[in-house]
Amino acid sequence: MHSDQGLPHPQRQWAILTVFCGLIMAVLDGSIANIALPSISRQLGTDPGHTIWVVNAYQLTVTVCLLPLSSLGDILGYKRVYRIGLATFLVGSLLCALSVNLPMLVAARVLQGIGGAGIMSVNTALVRYIYPPTKLGRGIGLNALVVGITTGIGPSVGALILSFASWQWLFAINVPVAVIALSLSRWALPVTPPQPRAFDYPSALLSAVVIGLFVLGVDGLGHDGLRRAAVGGLIAALLLGWWLARMERGKAAPLVPVDLFANRAFTLAVGTSFCSFMTQMLAFVALPFYLEYQLGRSLQETGLLITPWPLMVAVMAPLSGRLSDRFPASVLAGLGLALLCTGLVLLAMLDRGSSSIDVLWRMAMCGLGFGLFQSPNNRAMIGATPPHRSGGASGAQATTRLLGQTTGTAVVALLFALIGTSASRTALGVAACVAAVGAAVSLARLRGVPDRLAERGTTALEE
Q1: Is pLDDT larger for residue 438 or for residue 462?
Q2: What's the predicted TM-score (pTM) here?
Protein backbone atom coordinates (compact mmCIF):
# COMPACT_ATOMS: atom_id res chain seq x y z
CA MET A 1 0.00 0.00 0.00
CA HIS A 2 1.02 3.63 -0.37
CA SER A 3 2.13 5.88 2.46
CA ASP A 4 2.27 9.64 2.90
CA GLN A 5 5.96 9.16 3.61
CA GLY A 6 6.70 7.18 0.47
CA LEU A 7 8.01 3.64 0.31
CA PRO A 8 10.47 2.18 2.83
CA HIS A 9 13.98 1.04 1.93
CA PRO A 10 14.81 -1.09 -0.03
CA GLN A 11 11.41 -1.16 -1.76
CA ARG A 12 11.90 2.48 -2.78
CA GLN A 13 15.04 1.62 -4.75
CA TRP A 14 13.37 -1.32 -6.50
CA ALA A 15 10.29 0.78 -7.27
CA ILE A 16 12.24 3.63 -8.82
CA LEU A 17 14.33 1.13 -10.81
CA THR A 18 11.11 -0.39 -12.16
CA VAL A 19 9.69 3.02 -13.10
CA PHE A 20 12.92 4.05 -14.82
CA CYS A 21 13.14 0.80 -16.81
CA GLY A 22 9.78 1.53 -18.39
CA LEU A 23 10.52 5.22 -18.85
CA ILE A 24 13.85 4.56 -20.58
CA MET A 25 12.23 2.19 -23.07
CA ALA A 26 9.26 4.49 -23.75
CA VAL A 27 11.41 7.60 -24.30
CA LEU A 28 14.18 5.77 -26.16
CA ASP A 29 11.78 4.29 -28.70
CA GLY A 30 10.69 7.77 -29.64
CA SER A 31 14.07 8.45 -31.27
CA ILE A 32 15.96 5.17 -31.58
CA ALA A 33 14.22 4.13 -34.81
CA ASN A 34 15.17 7.33 -36.70
CA ILE A 35 18.62 6.10 -37.57
CA ALA A 36 17.29 2.76 -38.83
CA LEU A 37 14.81 4.20 -41.35
CA PRO A 38 17.11 3.67 -44.39
CA SER A 39 17.74 0.03 -43.38
CA ILE A 40 14.02 -0.58 -42.78
CA SER A 41 13.17 0.98 -46.15
CA ARG A 42 15.67 -1.21 -48.00
CA GLN A 43 14.77 -4.47 -46.27
CA LEU A 44 11.00 -4.01 -46.50
CA GLY A 45 11.18 -2.58 -50.02
CA THR A 46 9.23 0.59 -49.21
CA ASP A 47 9.47 4.22 -50.25
CA PRO A 48 11.67 6.21 -47.80
CA GLY A 49 8.95 8.85 -47.52
CA HIS A 50 6.46 6.24 -46.31
CA THR A 51 8.95 4.75 -43.86
CA ILE A 52 8.87 7.92 -41.75
CA TRP A 53 5.58 6.62 -40.36
CA VAL A 54 7.59 4.13 -38.32
CA VAL A 55 8.57 7.18 -36.24
CA ASN A 56 5.41 9.26 -36.64
CA ALA A 57 3.02 6.44 -35.67
CA TYR A 58 4.72 6.00 -32.30
CA GLN A 59 5.09 9.69 -31.50
CA LEU A 60 1.53 10.58 -32.51
CA THR A 61 0.00 7.65 -30.61
CA VAL A 62 1.90 8.47 -27.43
CA THR A 63 0.90 12.12 -27.57
CA VAL A 64 -2.84 11.57 -28.15
CA CYS A 65 -3.10 8.82 -25.51
CA LEU A 66 -1.33 10.52 -22.60
CA LEU A 67 -4.28 12.47 -21.14
CA PRO A 68 -6.86 9.64 -21.43
CA LEU A 69 -4.48 7.14 -19.83
CA SER A 70 -3.48 9.53 -17.05
CA SER A 71 -7.19 9.91 -16.24
CA LEU A 72 -7.48 6.11 -16.26
CA GLY A 73 -4.59 6.06 -13.77
CA ASP A 74 -6.61 8.24 -11.38
CA ILE A 75 -9.57 5.87 -11.75
CA LEU A 76 -7.87 2.44 -11.65
CA GLY A 77 -4.69 3.25 -9.74
CA TYR A 78 -1.32 4.26 -11.19
CA LYS A 79 0.34 0.90 -10.64
CA ARG A 80 -2.31 -0.94 -12.66
CA VAL A 81 -2.13 1.47 -15.61
CA TYR A 82 1.67 1.37 -15.55
CA ARG A 83 1.70 -2.45 -15.63
CA ILE A 84 -0.91 -2.61 -18.41
CA GLY A 85 1.14 -0.06 -20.38
CA LEU A 86 4.32 -2.05 -19.80
CA ALA A 87 2.68 -5.30 -20.97
CA THR A 88 1.25 -3.56 -24.06
CA PHE A 89 4.66 -2.07 -24.83
CA LEU A 90 6.22 -5.53 -24.52
CA VAL A 91 3.77 -7.07 -27.00
CA GLY A 92 4.17 -4.12 -29.38
CA SER A 93 7.97 -4.41 -29.26
CA LEU A 94 7.81 -8.12 -30.02
CA LEU A 95 5.49 -7.52 -32.98
CA CYS A 96 7.80 -4.76 -34.27
CA ALA A 97 10.72 -7.20 -34.24
CA LEU A 98 8.64 -9.82 -36.09
CA SER A 99 7.21 -7.44 -38.72
CA VAL A 100 7.61 -8.53 -42.35
CA ASN A 101 6.12 -5.48 -44.07
CA LEU A 102 5.61 -1.77 -43.42
CA PRO A 103 1.88 -1.86 -42.53
CA MET A 104 2.54 -4.53 -39.90
CA LEU A 105 5.46 -2.54 -38.49
CA VAL A 106 3.46 0.70 -38.33
CA ALA A 107 0.52 -1.09 -36.65
CA ALA A 108 2.93 -2.60 -34.12
CA ARG A 109 4.39 0.85 -33.47
CA VAL A 110 0.87 2.16 -32.74
CA LEU A 111 0.42 -0.64 -30.19
CA GLN A 112 3.84 0.15 -28.77
CA GLY A 113 2.84 3.84 -28.57
CA ILE A 114 -0.27 2.98 -26.53
CA GLY A 115 1.98 1.08 -24.12
CA GLY A 116 4.51 3.92 -24.01
CA ALA A 117 1.73 6.38 -23.21
CA GLY A 118 0.55 4.13 -20.39
CA ILE A 119 4.05 4.18 -18.92
CA MET A 120 4.67 7.91 -19.31
CA SER A 121 1.18 9.06 -18.32
CA VAL A 122 1.53 7.90 -14.69
CA ASN A 123 5.30 8.09 -14.38
CA THR A 124 5.50 11.26 -12.27
CA ALA A 125 2.43 10.26 -10.25
CA LEU A 126 4.19 7.06 -9.20
CA VAL A 127 7.35 8.99 -8.27
CA ARG A 128 5.19 11.14 -5.98
CA TYR A 129 4.11 8.05 -4.03
CA ILE A 130 7.55 6.39 -4.05
CA TYR A 131 9.35 9.31 -2.34
CA PRO A 132 8.34 11.16 0.85
CA PRO A 133 7.36 14.84 0.37
CA THR A 134 10.69 16.07 1.76
CA LYS A 135 12.58 14.13 -0.94
CA LEU A 136 10.15 14.55 -3.84
CA GLY A 137 12.51 16.96 -5.61
CA ARG A 138 15.25 14.32 -5.47
CA GLY A 139 12.97 11.76 -7.11
CA ILE A 140 11.80 14.16 -9.81
CA GLY A 141 15.41 15.20 -10.39
CA LEU A 142 16.39 11.59 -11.08
CA ASN A 143 13.35 11.28 -13.32
CA ALA A 144 14.44 14.35 -15.30
CA LEU A 145 17.96 12.93 -15.50
CA VAL A 146 16.65 9.70 -17.05
CA VAL A 147 14.47 11.55 -19.59
CA GLY A 148 17.26 13.97 -20.51
CA ILE A 149 19.96 11.35 -21.00
CA THR A 150 17.66 8.93 -22.81
CA THR A 151 16.44 11.62 -25.21
CA GLY A 152 20.02 12.60 -26.01
CA ILE A 153 21.52 9.14 -26.49
CA GLY A 154 18.70 7.62 -28.57
CA PRO A 155 20.42 7.94 -31.97
CA SER A 156 23.77 6.82 -30.51
CA VAL A 157 22.23 3.70 -28.95
CA GLY A 158 20.49 2.95 -32.25
CA ALA A 159 23.74 3.31 -34.18
CA LEU A 160 25.53 1.04 -31.70
CA ILE A 161 22.92 -1.72 -32.03
CA LEU A 162 22.88 -1.43 -35.84
CA SER A 163 26.67 -1.75 -35.94
CA PHE A 164 26.40 -5.44 -35.01
CA ALA A 165 22.73 -6.41 -35.46
CA SER A 166 19.74 -5.87 -37.76
CA TRP A 167 17.06 -3.19 -37.17
CA GLN A 168 14.72 -5.77 -35.63
CA TRP A 169 16.94 -5.80 -32.55
CA LEU A 170 16.15 -2.15 -31.87
CA PHE A 171 12.75 -3.43 -30.75
CA ALA A 172 13.59 -6.97 -29.61
CA ILE A 173 15.96 -5.64 -26.96
CA ASN A 174 12.93 -4.19 -25.14
CA VAL A 175 11.41 -7.62 -24.52
CA PRO A 176 13.71 -8.94 -21.74
CA VAL A 177 13.85 -5.51 -20.06
CA ALA A 178 10.04 -5.26 -20.07
CA VAL A 179 9.69 -8.79 -18.67
CA ILE A 180 12.04 -7.93 -15.79
CA ALA A 181 10.25 -4.63 -15.12
CA LEU A 182 6.85 -6.39 -15.12
CA SER A 183 8.11 -8.94 -12.61
CA LEU A 184 9.49 -6.26 -10.31
CA SER A 185 6.41 -4.03 -10.62
CA ARG A 186 4.14 -6.69 -9.13
CA TRP A 187 5.52 -6.13 -5.61
CA ALA A 188 7.78 -3.06 -5.82
CA LEU A 189 5.40 -0.33 -7.00
CA PRO A 190 3.13 1.48 -4.54
CA VAL A 191 -0.60 0.65 -4.60
CA THR A 192 -2.52 3.92 -4.85
CA PRO A 193 -6.22 4.22 -4.02
CA PRO A 194 -8.50 4.00 -7.09
CA GLN A 195 -11.23 6.60 -7.55
CA PRO A 196 -14.56 4.99 -8.44
CA ARG A 197 -15.93 7.02 -11.32
CA ALA A 198 -16.78 6.36 -14.95
CA PHE A 199 -14.19 6.89 -17.66
CA ASP A 200 -15.14 9.85 -19.88
CA TYR A 201 -15.05 8.28 -23.37
CA PRO A 202 -16.39 11.34 -25.30
CA SER A 203 -13.77 13.62 -23.76
CA ALA A 204 -11.04 11.04 -24.36
CA LEU A 205 -11.95 10.79 -28.06
CA LEU A 206 -12.24 14.55 -28.51
CA SER A 207 -8.95 15.23 -26.71
CA ALA A 208 -7.21 12.72 -28.99
CA VAL A 209 -8.66 14.48 -32.05
CA VAL A 210 -7.62 17.93 -30.79
CA ILE A 211 -4.05 16.90 -29.95
CA GLY A 212 -3.73 14.85 -33.14
CA LEU A 213 -4.85 17.80 -35.29
CA PHE A 214 -2.43 20.09 -33.44
CA VAL A 215 0.55 17.76 -33.89
CA LEU A 216 -0.18 17.10 -37.57
CA GLY A 217 -0.87 20.80 -38.11
CA VAL A 218 2.40 22.09 -36.67
CA ASP A 219 4.30 19.32 -38.47
CA GLY A 220 2.69 20.28 -41.79
CA LEU A 221 3.76 23.94 -41.49
CA GLY A 222 7.27 23.01 -42.62
CA HIS A 223 6.08 21.42 -45.87
CA ASP A 224 5.14 23.66 -48.80
CA GLY A 225 2.43 21.41 -50.17
CA LEU A 226 0.80 20.86 -46.79
CA ARG A 227 0.91 24.37 -45.34
CA ARG A 228 -2.66 25.34 -46.20
CA ALA A 229 -4.07 22.08 -44.83
CA ALA A 230 -1.87 22.48 -41.74
CA VAL A 231 -3.32 25.92 -41.00
CA GLY A 232 -6.82 24.49 -41.39
CA GLY A 233 -5.95 21.67 -39.00
CA LEU A 234 -4.62 24.11 -36.40
CA ILE A 235 -7.76 26.24 -36.62
CA ALA A 236 -9.89 23.10 -36.20
CA ALA A 237 -7.76 22.06 -33.21
CA LEU A 238 -8.24 25.49 -31.63
CA LEU A 239 -12.03 25.46 -32.08
CA LEU A 240 -12.45 21.85 -30.91
CA GLY A 241 -10.11 22.52 -27.98
CA TRP A 242 -12.28 25.46 -26.90
CA TRP A 243 -15.36 23.24 -27.10
CA LEU A 244 -13.59 20.50 -25.12
CA ALA A 245 -12.58 22.94 -22.38
CA ARG A 246 -16.19 24.08 -22.05
CA MET A 247 -17.33 20.44 -21.80
CA GLU A 248 -14.78 19.72 -19.07
CA ARG A 249 -15.46 22.84 -17.02
CA GLY A 250 -17.32 22.11 -13.78
CA LYS A 251 -16.46 18.40 -13.64
CA ALA A 252 -14.98 17.19 -10.35
CA ALA A 253 -12.12 15.32 -12.04
CA PRO A 254 -12.07 16.20 -15.75
CA LEU A 255 -10.07 14.08 -18.20
CA VAL A 256 -8.46 17.23 -19.58
CA PRO A 257 -7.21 18.80 -16.32
CA VAL A 258 -8.90 22.19 -16.67
CA ASP A 259 -9.48 22.14 -12.90
CA LEU A 260 -5.73 22.12 -12.29
CA PHE A 261 -5.28 25.19 -14.48
CA ALA A 262 -7.32 27.13 -11.92
CA ASN A 263 -4.18 26.81 -9.77
CA ARG A 264 -1.87 29.65 -10.78
CA ALA A 265 1.30 27.79 -9.78
CA PHE A 266 0.34 24.80 -11.96
CA THR A 267 -0.60 26.95 -14.95
CA LEU A 268 2.64 28.92 -14.90
CA ALA A 269 4.67 25.72 -14.46
CA VAL A 270 2.98 24.25 -17.57
CA GLY A 271 3.66 27.44 -19.56
CA THR A 272 7.30 27.43 -18.49
CA SER A 273 7.64 23.75 -19.41
CA PHE A 274 6.19 24.28 -22.89
CA CYS A 275 8.61 27.16 -23.56
CA SER A 276 11.61 25.17 -22.33
CA PHE A 277 10.98 22.07 -24.44
CA MET A 278 10.15 24.16 -27.48
CA THR A 279 13.49 25.91 -26.95
CA GLN A 280 15.29 22.58 -26.55
CA MET A 281 14.03 21.17 -29.85
CA LEU A 282 14.55 24.43 -31.73
CA ALA A 283 18.19 24.28 -30.68
CA PHE A 284 18.75 20.52 -31.05
CA VAL A 285 17.38 20.46 -34.60
CA ALA A 286 19.17 23.64 -35.68
CA LEU A 287 22.58 23.06 -34.05
CA PRO A 288 23.92 20.33 -36.40
CA PHE A 289 23.13 22.55 -39.42
CA TYR A 290 24.57 25.60 -37.67
CA LEU A 291 27.83 23.93 -36.72
CA GLU A 292 28.35 22.33 -40.14
CA TYR A 293 27.11 25.05 -42.52
CA GLN A 294 27.73 28.25 -40.57
CA LEU A 295 30.82 27.33 -38.56
CA GLY A 296 32.35 24.84 -41.04
CA ARG A 297 32.72 21.90 -38.66
CA SER A 298 32.83 18.25 -39.74
CA LEU A 299 30.15 15.72 -38.83
CA GLN A 300 32.41 14.16 -36.19
CA GLU A 301 33.31 17.54 -34.69
CA THR A 302 29.64 18.52 -34.58
CA GLY A 303 28.74 15.48 -32.48
CA LEU A 304 31.53 16.19 -30.00
CA LEU A 305 30.78 19.91 -29.77
CA ILE A 306 27.13 19.30 -28.86
CA THR A 307 28.08 16.78 -26.13
CA PRO A 308 28.51 19.32 -23.25
CA TRP A 309 24.80 20.18 -23.42
CA PRO A 310 23.36 16.74 -22.49
CA LEU A 311 26.34 16.12 -20.20
CA MET A 312 25.59 19.21 -18.13
CA VAL A 313 21.88 18.33 -18.04
CA ALA A 314 22.87 14.93 -16.60
CA VAL A 315 25.02 16.62 -13.95
CA MET A 316 22.51 19.31 -13.02
CA ALA A 317 19.17 17.43 -13.07
CA PRO A 318 19.63 15.49 -9.78
CA LEU A 319 21.39 18.45 -8.12
CA SER A 320 18.61 20.88 -9.04
CA GLY A 321 16.08 18.30 -7.84
CA ARG A 322 17.66 18.39 -4.39
CA LEU A 323 17.77 22.20 -4.49
CA SER A 324 14.06 22.31 -5.31
CA ASP A 325 13.31 20.65 -1.96
CA ARG A 326 14.79 23.75 -0.29
CA PHE A 327 14.40 26.73 -2.64
CA PRO A 328 11.50 28.16 -4.72
CA ALA A 329 11.10 26.59 -8.14
CA SER A 330 10.26 29.94 -9.72
CA VAL A 331 13.73 31.28 -8.93
CA LEU A 332 15.61 28.09 -9.88
CA ALA A 333 13.65 27.55 -13.11
CA GLY A 334 13.77 31.24 -14.05
CA LEU A 335 17.53 31.37 -13.49
CA GLY A 336 17.96 28.17 -15.51
CA LEU A 337 16.04 29.49 -18.50
CA ALA A 338 17.89 32.82 -18.29
CA LEU A 339 21.18 30.90 -18.50
CA LEU A 340 19.82 28.87 -21.42
CA CYS A 341 18.75 32.07 -23.20
CA THR A 342 22.18 33.64 -22.65
CA GLY A 343 23.99 30.54 -23.90
CA LEU A 344 21.89 30.46 -27.08
CA VAL A 345 22.50 34.15 -27.79
CA LEU A 346 26.25 33.63 -27.35
CA LEU A 347 26.15 30.57 -29.63
CA ALA A 348 24.33 32.54 -32.34
CA MET A 349 27.10 35.20 -32.26
CA LEU A 350 29.88 32.76 -33.28
CA ASP A 351 31.56 32.74 -36.69
CA ARG A 352 33.94 30.49 -38.62
CA GLY A 353 36.92 31.90 -36.76
CA SER A 354 35.57 30.79 -33.38
CA SER A 355 37.53 28.09 -31.56
CA SER A 356 36.15 24.80 -30.28
CA ILE A 357 36.53 26.09 -26.73
CA ASP A 358 34.25 29.01 -27.65
CA VAL A 359 31.58 26.53 -28.72
CA LEU A 360 32.06 24.07 -25.86
CA TRP A 361 31.60 26.47 -22.95
CA ARG A 362 28.53 27.99 -24.56
CA MET A 363 27.02 24.51 -25.02
CA ALA A 364 27.82 23.76 -21.38
CA MET A 365 26.03 26.96 -20.31
CA CYS A 366 22.92 25.88 -22.25
CA GLY A 367 22.99 22.44 -20.63
CA LEU A 368 23.56 23.96 -17.20
CA GLY A 369 20.54 26.22 -17.66
CA PHE A 370 18.23 23.50 -18.95
CA GLY A 371 19.32 21.10 -16.20
CA LEU A 372 18.76 23.75 -13.52
CA PHE A 373 15.27 24.49 -14.84
CA GLN A 374 13.77 21.05 -15.41
CA SER A 375 13.59 19.33 -12.03
CA PRO A 376 12.34 22.32 -9.96
CA ASN A 377 9.67 23.13 -12.53
CA ASN A 378 8.45 19.52 -12.66
CA ARG A 379 8.39 19.42 -8.87
CA ALA A 380 6.35 22.62 -8.77
CA MET A 381 3.89 21.21 -11.29
CA ILE A 382 3.23 17.98 -9.38
CA GLY A 383 3.46 19.69 -5.98
CA ALA A 384 0.75 22.22 -6.89
CA THR A 385 -1.87 19.47 -7.30
CA PRO A 386 -3.70 17.36 -4.70
CA PRO A 387 -2.62 13.70 -4.51
CA HIS A 388 -5.86 12.37 -6.01
CA ARG A 389 -5.17 14.41 -9.19
CA SER A 390 -1.56 13.24 -9.57
CA GLY A 391 -2.48 11.32 -12.72
CA GLY A 392 -3.89 14.44 -14.37
CA ALA A 393 -0.77 16.41 -13.47
CA SER A 394 1.53 13.61 -14.67
CA GLY A 395 -0.32 13.37 -17.99
CA ALA A 396 -0.29 17.15 -18.44
CA GLN A 397 3.44 17.24 -17.76
CA ALA A 398 4.26 14.57 -20.35
CA THR A 399 1.85 16.04 -22.91
CA THR A 400 3.34 19.51 -22.47
CA ARG A 401 6.84 18.14 -23.03
CA LEU A 402 5.87 16.38 -26.27
CA LEU A 403 3.80 19.30 -27.60
CA GLY A 404 6.65 21.72 -26.87
CA GLN A 405 9.15 19.47 -28.66
CA THR A 406 6.79 19.03 -31.62
CA THR A 407 6.26 22.79 -31.92
CA GLY A 408 9.99 23.49 -31.73
CA THR A 409 10.74 20.97 -34.48
CA ALA A 410 7.97 22.42 -36.66
CA VAL A 411 9.25 26.00 -36.25
CA VAL A 412 12.74 24.96 -37.39
CA ALA A 413 11.27 23.16 -40.41
CA LEU A 414 9.25 26.27 -41.27
CA LEU A 415 12.31 28.52 -40.96
CA PHE A 416 14.34 26.23 -43.24
CA ALA A 417 11.50 26.18 -45.78
CA LEU A 418 11.32 29.99 -45.80
CA ILE A 419 15.01 30.95 -45.48
CA GLY A 420 17.16 27.90 -46.34
CA THR A 421 20.17 26.46 -44.50
CA SER A 422 21.14 29.90 -43.16
CA ALA A 423 17.99 29.67 -41.01
CA SER A 424 19.93 27.72 -38.38
CA ARG A 425 21.33 30.94 -36.86
CA THR A 426 17.84 32.47 -36.93
CA ALA A 427 16.45 29.35 -35.22
CA LEU A 428 18.93 29.80 -32.34
CA GLY A 429 17.76 33.40 -31.98
CA VAL A 430 14.13 32.31 -31.91
CA ALA A 431 15.03 29.63 -29.32
CA ALA A 432 16.68 32.30 -27.15
CA CYS A 433 13.52 34.45 -27.35
CA VAL A 434 11.29 31.52 -26.34
CA ALA A 435 13.63 30.76 -23.42
CA ALA A 436 13.40 34.40 -22.33
CA VAL A 437 9.60 34.19 -22.39
CA GLY A 438 9.81 30.99 -20.31
CA ALA A 439 12.06 32.70 -17.77
CA ALA A 440 9.59 35.59 -17.47
CA VAL A 441 6.67 33.17 -17.02
CA SER A 442 8.59 31.30 -14.34
CA LEU A 443 9.48 34.43 -12.41
CA ALA A 444 5.81 35.52 -12.57
CA ARG A 445 5.20 32.84 -9.93
CA LEU A 446 6.84 35.14 -7.40
CA ARG A 447 3.78 37.40 -7.49
CA GLY A 448 0.54 36.69 -5.66
CA VAL A 449 0.53 33.54 -3.54
CA PRO A 450 3.81 33.05 -1.69
CA ASP A 451 5.97 30.91 -3.91
CA ARG A 452 6.88 28.28 -1.39
CA LEU A 453 3.24 27.71 -0.48
CA ALA A 454 2.18 27.59 -4.14
CA GLU A 455 4.79 25.00 -5.00
CA ARG A 456 4.00 22.90 -2.00
CA GLY A 457 0.31 23.51 -2.60
CA THR A 458 -0.72 19.92 -1.94
CA THR A 459 -0.89 20.48 1.80
CA ALA A 460 -2.75 23.75 1.41
CA LEU A 461 -5.21 22.22 -1.04
CA GLU A 462 -5.87 19.27 1.21
CA GLU A 463 -6.46 21.57 4.19
Answers
A1: 438
A2: 0.80
